[in-house]
């Protein structure tokens, strides 16, 4: 089974694209905002979904009411595309009122803001969550979807989420988009895997490590926070890229399966000791026992996460509460040790 694990190498996400408008809405990508007309910040700290909900239906939080921003609601309020862009950039409504200072003023290309308006129009068509079902749109990648379907079958066998079953829906713009969900969640998994790899180096008794790949400030901070020092001659190697930059002999190699996985077989063959970090114990067991690919394992991880998020969101489930519950999930990791 040890060498079968080496073959469980996660491959890139399917290339189905996310619109620039959706990326700006969900994560604030591509724009800046002005706070009090004096301080410019990346809009990633002030995403539309963060205040108005992932479904654009609005919500109340801490005494502040964030209104709905689906296009149907904006249309009733007198917005057309030009008025919408003016409100975002100048803070002026169609009836010439000034928006609250809690609403940031956006600095972005007009074409990007028009794409955001297009995305808000799609929110009116969101559905897929009923009293008995939670719809998820597949990715279009056969392997990823196969793993996802296997995971939600297990969730449904265990009772689903408060009477709702997870189902695959092909209806356009209905339910949760698996590709968008994966894109939002995988960065969290990579962070959790990195933390687990650094902890494993420390727990194995190493005090120094070398780094294979280009370490940014965050990686350096995490290494130092763990009480470790960076030394190019160290026996423990932390892999943060997919290319091997160090001699494998007599080295101990640590890293996430995405980065270290493609190198694992050759490193083990050359006498190295490899510690892979995978993001879900149950997904690993399923993949190994049924001899599934790494991409299928990735789909299984995502299906399990959606199941957990649906349970966490509670009985009064909406797309917004499901998305928020998923963002707050704790990511579990599994260490897999490989050697000759």
UniProtKB/TrEMBL annotation:
<feature type="signal peptide">
    <location>
        <begin position="1"/>
        <end position="17"/>
    </location>
</feature>
<dbReference type="InterPro" id="IPR009056">
    <property type="entry name" value="Cyt_c-like_dom"/>
</dbReference>
<keyword id="KW-0732">Signal</keyword>
<keyword id="KW-0479">Metal-binding</keyword>
<dbReference type="Pfam" id="PF00034">
    <property type="entry name" value="Cytochrom_C"/>
</dbReference>
<keyword id="KW-0349">Heme</keyword>
<protein>
    <recommendedName>
        <fullName>Cytochrome c domain-containing protein</fullName>
    </recommendedName>
</protein>
<dbReference type="InterPro" id="IPR036909">
    <property type="entry name" value="Cyt_c-like_dom_sf"/>
</dbReference>
<feature type="domain" description="Cytochrome c">
    <location>
        <begin position="16"/>
        <end position="153"/>
    </location>
</feature>
<keyword id="KW-0408">Iron</keyword>
